[in-house]
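Local shape tokens

___
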Amino acid sequence: MKPLYPTLLASALLLATPAAFAHNAFVECEAIAEGQIRCTGGLSNGSAAPDVTLDVIGYDEKVLVAGKLGADSRFTFPRPDGEFYVLLDLGAGHTAELDYKQIKGL
């Protein structure tokens, strides 16, 4: 008869693993005064994301504004000319994109 411990441990790990990846990255942006855009990013569970990379990228794939979220999980930048999107990169394949057409108030 085989011991159940390895089987139980493997089952517990499999059940716990999806919970670790169940939260998605998000980014929301809005136009604010004087041609500025403020973006807030984080995880769908409400976790903050200070010091996470947030880049503003043109449709030609050139980085127009490189930045990081502040302690409040926000980043404010001047609205670039032309078409662009915002890319939040939490690492390990966890990203969120927002096209300029989806920015509130533009």
